[in-house]
Amino acid sequence: MCRSIKTLRPPMMPSVEDEDIRAAALQYVRKVSGFHHPAAHNQAVFEEAVAAVAAATQRLLDGLEVRGAAKP
């Protein structure tokens, strides 16, 4: 379904920029909802979904441990 979403964190890269996480979340919500730009009456729920996906993505990336990677 989301084949074009790029990998945010290659295995040995320790961090990802917030704007990259938000861009990936936005791309995901657009793909799932089917809307590139939601109508005004859907804007709030659309933005809430982007924020929720971005937060979940940040938690995931923060929690991952990569063997052999240098600890910050």
Strand % is under 5%
Task: Give the helix proportion (percent range).
Answer: 40-55%
H and E order: HH
**Sheet of most strands:** none
Mean pLDDT: 84
- The counted number of beta strands is 0
Low-confidence stretches: none
- How many angstroms does the end-to-end distance come to? 34 Å
Structural class: mainly alpha
Describe the model:
This is DUF2277 domain-containing protein. It holds the Pfam family DUF2277. It comes from Streptomyces hiroshimensis. This protein is mainly alpha-helical. It has a domain at 35-62. Helix content is 51%, strand content 0%. It has 2 helices and no strands. The longest helix is centred in the last third of the chain and has 21 residues, at 43-63. The chain is elongated. The N and C termini lie far apart (34 Å).
Write out key terms for the chains shown.
mainly alpha; 2 helices; elongated
Topology diagram in text:
Layout: H1 18-33, H2 43-63
Helix pairs in contact: 1-2
Give a short summary of the structure.
By secondary structure, the chain is mainly alpha-helical. It has 2 helices and no strands. It has a domain at 35-62.
